[in-house]
TrEMBL record:
It comes from Hydrocarboniphaga effusa AP103. GO terms for molecular function: antioxidant activity; disulfide oxidoreductase activity. PANTHER family: CHROMOSOME UNDETERMINED SCAFFOLD_47, WHOLE GENOME SHOTGUN SEQUENCE, THIOL:DISULFIDE INTERCHANGE PROTEIN DSBE. Gene3D superfamilies: Glutaredoxin. This is Thioredoxin domain-containing protein.
Length: 180
């Protein structure tokens, strides 16, 4: 009986350690993380849109570009999309361009994007999306992941996690290209 008790204690102890580690990882990945270091020039990235046409970040040069990586199965991503749609509508004529690469199957994205009413370019891909996230500085692979690129193609802001409305409005307003 003593041997069974000690085996049970070991198994329970390992379970507690695993649960604590899992909870810690969840809290780390669930909380938004702003990456403050300057990002340098945005890399050359090309991904297909929903019609299969290649789109590049370079085609949006001269605009403030918010690249927002998302997926159809990502609850925080789906919660954030209506706000992104609103930002594109409000600030698009002032020089904002949101681009939404989806880390998902093209079929799932083609089905979900119209339901969401996304008015900005949605890009798809398999390993290419992961490569694009890494090229834009993602070190966690967590979604949503956003990168703000100024009109000159410089990365000015990166964030893991969901935006708050006020935070995103201030960020966009402070980096919009100046008219004139």
């Amino acid at each position: 009986m003593s041997r069974k008790f000690s085996q049970l204690a070991v198994v329970l102890g390992l379970g507690v350690v695993a649960a604590a580690g899992g909870y810690g990882a969840y809290r780390y990945l669930a909380s938004p993380t702003v990456i403050d270091e300057p990002g340098g020039q945005a890399p050359a990235i090309s991904l297909p849109d929903l019609t299969g046409q290649p789109r590049t970040l370079a085609e949006f040069r001269g605009k403030l570009v918010l690249v927002n990586f998302w997926a159809t199965w990502c609850t925080p991503c789906l919660k954030e999309i209506p706000m992104l749609i609103d930002m594109q509508t409000r600030f698009g004529e002032q020089g904002l361009q949101i681009v939404g690469p989806a880390m998902d199957t093209p079929e799932a994205v083609r089905n979900k994007a119209p339901q969401l009413g996304i008015p900005y370019p949605v890009l798809v891909g398999d390993a290419e999306i992961v490569d694009a996230m890494q090229a834009l500085g993602d070190t966690l692979g967590a979604l949503p992941y956003s990168v703000l690129i100024d009109a000159n193609g410089e990365i000015v802001f990166r964030k893991h996690g969901e935006f708050e409305r006020d935070e995103l409005e201030k960020l966009i307003a402070s980096h919009l290209p100046k008219a004139g």
